[in-house]
Amino acid sequence: MVHSMTAYANQSIQLPNGMARWELRSVNHRFLELSFKLPEFLNDVEPDLRAIAEATLSRGKVECGLRLELSEEKNNAFVINLDVLDQLMVANQEIISRFPTTSLSVLDILRWPSILQPVQKDWVALKEPLKQSFILALQDLSDTRAREGAKLKKCIQVRLASIRCRLQKTHQRLPLILQEFRTKLLEKLSSLNIEIDPSRFEAVLVSLLQKMDITEELDRLNAHLEEIDRILITEKVMGRRLDFLMQELNREANTLGSKANDKFLSEDAIELKVLIEEMREQIQNIE
């Protein structure tokens, strides 16, 4: 199945005091490059998330971000540090024993550094739900890449059909091209009023026609097209192989153009290169 490397996915999960939202973005890249933007409490979970992503994706630059939207806790937002309070009370009693008129007020105690501490949230309980939510987001991303890949596959197949049509017409026209070349050459020699040795003329003509013959190029082009069809059906990770085949198709198209001694054959070579380039641009986004 063809997978695109360009996709976006998000997945939300309800938390006891708010909501968490995964956002995954993927673009084309030569290899698989993962980047995570996570809250600090999930640092120890990142290796597991990375392993899950690597088992699902093969290529692409993927950004994985987690956004927390937590509600403000109005009650029990702070707790008293009892250890600091005990030490503060002991010190206060010593001060009172020496200076009876001196004593700490409640406000003085609350102002004391470290006497108030924020409530510690139970992040550990959230790790597994957030991990499962990431798996769902990753599956959504993979499904999106598959849908986009199906569209790319259709675009490529349309151009493959156009190339096959061009090659078939070229192959059918090839005998006519060679015959026209032979006729033009005879007419040229006749206009020069030059006596020619028929056997030598035929030998030279055969040599020239062999140089013009593009049968091998047409066969190789068709073989490459068959290989592209096979890859599109049987392989999952195919972007690099298809890109290599685009280079081979382009090389054969260049050879056709260099051998062209016919207006229509030159036009075919140019059209082939256009279609190949259009496919290559699509293939840059295939995993």
Structure description:
This protein has 287 residues and is an alpha+beta fold. The protein has three domains: 7-73 and 126-145, Ribosomal Protein S5, domain 2, CATH 3.30.230; 78-118, no CATH class; 147-283, Butyryl-CoA Dehydrogenase, subunit A, domain 3, CATH 1.20.140. It has eight helices and six strands, in the order βββαββααβααααα. A hairpin with a 2-residue loop joins strand 1 and strand 2 (18-27). Helix 1 (46-56) runs parallel beside helix 4. It starts with 6 loop residues before the first strand and ends with a helix.
What is the strand and helix layout of this fold?
Layout: E1 7-15, E2 18-27, E3 32-37, H1 46-56, E4 60-70, E5 78-80, H2 82-98, H3 106-111, E6 116-118, H4 124-191, H5 198-212, H6 215-234, H7 239-259, H8 263-283
Parallel strand pairs: 3-4
Antiparallel strand pairs: 1-2, 2-4, 5-6
Helix pairs in contact: 1-4, 4-6, 4-8, 6-7, 7-8
Helix count from the secondary structure assignment = 8
Helix content: 55-70%
* CATH-level-2 architecture of the largest domain: Up-down Bundle
How would a crystallographer describe the biggest sheet?
4 strands, mixed
Q: What do the pLDDT scores average to?
A: 84
Provide key terms for this protein:
287 residues, alpha+beta, Ribosomal Protein S5, domain 2, Butyryl-CoA Dehydrogenase, subunit A, domain 3, 3 domains, four-stranded mixed beta sheet, two-stranded antiparallel ribbon
